[in-house]
Design a protein that fits this description.
By secondary structure, this protein is α/β, with parallel strands linked by helices. It has a single domain, classed as Class I glutamine amidotransferase (GATase) domain (Rossmann fold, 3-Layer(aba) Sandwich), CATH 3.40.50.880. It is built from seven helices and 13 strands. It is globular. Keywords: Glycosyltransferase, Transferase. InterPro entries: Class_I_gatase-like, Peptidase_C26, PuuD-like. It comes from Clostridium baratii. One of its GO terms (biological process) is polyamine catabolic process.
């Protein structure tokens, strides 16, 4: 068993608005993902967006696991839909990068944890689609973009028996919430692992792989104040050591 697995973290892209450097492209990543991996005894490895397939293959060979992070909306054209009026900003080159990361890590059966957008892109990678704006749904009765501090849970999710998440978290858990999109049609191989009280899919799992789990909430924001989220990261890191 390896002592400290190397964990790849997908990054995003920001365009600098500082007048001195306006238009400069910046690699973007919340430090909370990095700290959560350190806290769970992994070693984080930031992955800049690239269309170099050879580099992505080498990432997959070098690293022991992958975290797909949150961020921009996914381009709906990738799941054969036209853009909804409430669609947020998209970074299509990031979408393609994340999809290729998934392809290469799956080819080696290495663990993948998708967080928020990361869960959604996992689903899209397998032919699934998304609700582009859940606030437009008539049955959306829960606030999915919370006001309380990010380390506090704002609503409950119910976890399905027989899932990996149920083994880790139990029957239900309080989660934070920062999303306006969600999984609609499941991608091939995926099953629902958790739902909110209004029926929104909050977690998915693909049992065709060693560990492929997507959660709609942000466990990296809660890891220091919530043992459930620490257990989730610990379980993932342990899978990356096998």
């Amino acid at each position: 068993m390896k002592e400290r697995p190397l964990i790849g973290i997908s990054s995003s892209l920001m365009i600098d608005t500082d007048p001195k450097f306006i238009g400069r492209r910046l690699v973007s990543l919340s430090e909370k993902y990095i700290n959560a991996i350190f806290y769970s005894k992994g070693i984080p490895f930031i992955l800049p967006i690239s269309n170099d397939i050879d580099s992505i293959k080498k990432y997959a060979n070098l690293l022991d696991g992958l975290i797909l992070t949150g961020g921009h909306d996914i381009n709906p054209l990738l799941y054969c839909e036209e853009p909804h009026p409430n669609l947020g900003n998209v970074v299509t080159e990031r979408d393609y990068f994340d999809l290729e990361l998934i392809n290469e890590f799956e080819a080696l059966n290495k663990p993948i944890l998708g967080i928020c957008r990361g869960s959604q892109v996992l689903n899209v990678a397998h032919g699934g689609d998304l609700y582009q704006d859940i606030t437009s749904l008539k049955n959306n009765i829960i606030k999915h973009y919370q006001s309380p501090p990010e380390y506090e849970g704002s609503h409950t999710v119910t976890i399905k028996e027989g899932t990996i998440l149920h083994e880790i978290l139990g029957d239900s858990v309080l989660v934070n919430s920062y999303h306006h999109q969600a999984v609609k049609k499941l991608g091939e191989g995926f099953k629902v692992a958790a739902t909110s009280k209004d029926g929104i899919i909050e977690a998915i799992e693909n049992t065709n792989y060693n560990f492929e789990v997507g959660v709609q909430w942000h466990p990296e924001m809660m890891i220091y104040s919530n043992n459930h989220m620490k257990h989730l990261f610990d379980y993932f890191i342990n899978k990356c050591q096998i």
